[in-house]
Design a protein that fits this description.
Helix content: over 70%
Radius of gyration: 22 Å
Number of helices: 20
Order of helices and strands: HHHHHHHHHHHHHHHHHHHH
Strand content: under 5%
Number of strands: 0
Length: about 475
């Protein structure tokens, strides 16, 4: 509920900001975001995963990670600020000097609350962490929209970050009354770094690879072109990352509790795969079907070049939760070495595809992302099947009903709304028809995933009533 409510508000926020700001504003943020993402990965250093997986974790472990995070973030922020001029020269955008430096300050400040969040996940206090994240996200979003209305332009996407830091700092202390302290243990550091270092290397590979596209587009094309690509990517990323974060955030600590029971692990793993596909496949394929009226109605026709990017990227992002669950399983089993090896193999393939497609166009690069995502799916599922004896065929069989419902739904919606002249009517009919068709097919075929989803919702409602 936290992830969906936060992302729903983030979606509304993005719609409002897209109407108030220009494509070049979002392009500038995407340019700086490339280096931001790498810095955040360096600061984490894989210690968050190591803490969550560690069964006998103590306050000394949390304190050690806190000390490492603060020191790393200070070093990374200083380097980022020192390189801000070079980054601005690379893109030929002088305004990036200030943007990059402010991002560096935010990275440093964020290290003071990172461990508090990890502690809540490690102890599975998801409700409390959800409450904090929801309040923080809504507060920061409202400030960002207010700044945009007041004419702050691109700065309305940066300044609110300081507000959300201080609000988050207050909320973590108010709800937890806990601070990690500054004690440091060399033994704890070595133990967690042995596992976390491989996760860090994997994370860096993944982060650098994912941000190569905005890096190349920003360098080779204009900030507006990057803005169009970024907006198409944002529309597909919101639902994909919401589902991925939900599953990764909950499945990793939960599956870690049953890491030694392969039978239970395989059962939970397959259920997570089916549930993620059942929810996300229709959302992204449906979004691709109504992309044009969706863009025009929500963020106006000035963003029309984003439509084709949205449609293509939807078929790449729909597999992200499947990737995440497979990779979580490797972490649960403690196979950070295999995790790193797979990341290297996938990124070599991905970079090879990027080198070829970047010579064509941005559109060609988007098609390359889809191909890379499908190859990654095969590689991930092949190796995880060896760990818990759930073959690739079984996994594809689990996913096939949701894929069949979604593809047929998308084709029907795309074909029918093509005969409707008004974009508002296109969007309304497309959403209602798509949702009705998908639910009807799931009901007609007695989908287990639909039944399980209803069970989850019903159980939560009943628990709310009892608690009230």
């Amino acid at each position: 509920m936290e992830k969906f409510s936060v992302q729903l508000f983030a979606f509304v926020q993005q719609v409002i900001l897209a109407r108030l700001l220009s494509p070049s504003d979002f392009g500038l943020i995407a340019m700086a975001g490339v280096f931001n993402a790498v810095c955040y990965t360096l600061v984490d250093s894989g210690f968050a995963s190591a803490l969550i997986r560690k069964k006998d974790r103590t306050d000394l472990d949390f304190s050690t990670v806190f000390d490492v995070n603060v020191c790393m973030s200070f070093l990374v922020a200083a380097i980022l600020c020192a390189c801000s001029g070079l980054i601005a020269d690379f893109y030929h955008e002088s305004i990036l000097v200030k943007i990059v430096c402010l991002n560096g300050v935010l990275i440093f400040l964020g290290s003071f609350t990172a461990v508090q969040g990890v502690r809540l996940s490690a102890t599975m206090q998801f409700k409390l962490r959800s409450k904090i994240n929801v309040i923080n996200s809504f507060g920061g979003g409202i400030i960002s929209i207010l700044f945009a209305f007041l004419g702050f332009g691109v700065w309305s996407l940066i300044y609110p970050g300081f507000f959300t830091f201080f609000l988050g700092l207050y909320l973590y202390w108010h709800y937890q009354h806990w601070f990690p302290g500054i004690k440091f243990s060399k033994k704890s550091f070595k133990e967690m770094f042995g596992y976390g270092s491989k996760m860090l290397a994997s994370g860096l590979l993944n982060t650098v690879y994912n941000n190569m596209y905005p890096l190349i587009i920003g360098k080779k094309y204009s900030s507006s072109d990057l803005g169009y690509f970024s907006k198409g990517q944002t529309f597909t990323t919101l639902p994909a990352l919401t589902m991925t974060n939900v599953l990764a955030g909950v499945s990793f600590p939960v599956l870690s509790q049953i890491q030694d029971d392969d039978e239970r692990l395989a059962h939970s793993y397959r259920r997570l795969l089916r549930l993620s596909a059942f929810v996300l496949f229709p959302v992204l394929i449906g979004m691709a079907a109504v992309a044009k009226p969706l863009i025009i109605v929500l963020i106006t026709a000035k963003w029309l070049p984003s439509v084709i990017y949205l449609q293509i990227l939807a078929f790449a992002l729909m597999w992200y939760p499947i990737h995440a669950i497979n990779l979580s399983l490797l972490q649960v089993k403690g196979r950070s070495d295999l995790f790193l090896r797979l990341e290297i193999i996938k990124k070599i393939l991905g970079v090879s595809i990027l080198i070829v497609t970047m010579q064509i166009s941005i559109l060609g690069m988007c098609v390359g992302i889809v191909v890379s995502s499908l190859l990654s799916l095969y590689i991930n599922t092949y190796y995880t099947s060896k760990l818990i004896h759930v073959s690739l065929w079984k996994q594809l069989k689990d996913l096939s009903p949701s894929l069949a419902y979604s593809l047929s739904m998308g084709l029907i919606v795309y074909f029918i709304i093509g005969f409707i002249p008004n974009v508002w009517v296109q969007l309304t009919v497309g959403v209602i028809l798509g949702a009705g068709y998908y639910y009807g097919m799931a009901k007609l075929t007695k989908s287990q995933d639909l039944a399980y989803l209803k069970e989850i919702i019903t159980t939560n409602i009943l628990n709310k009533i009892r608690n009230a």
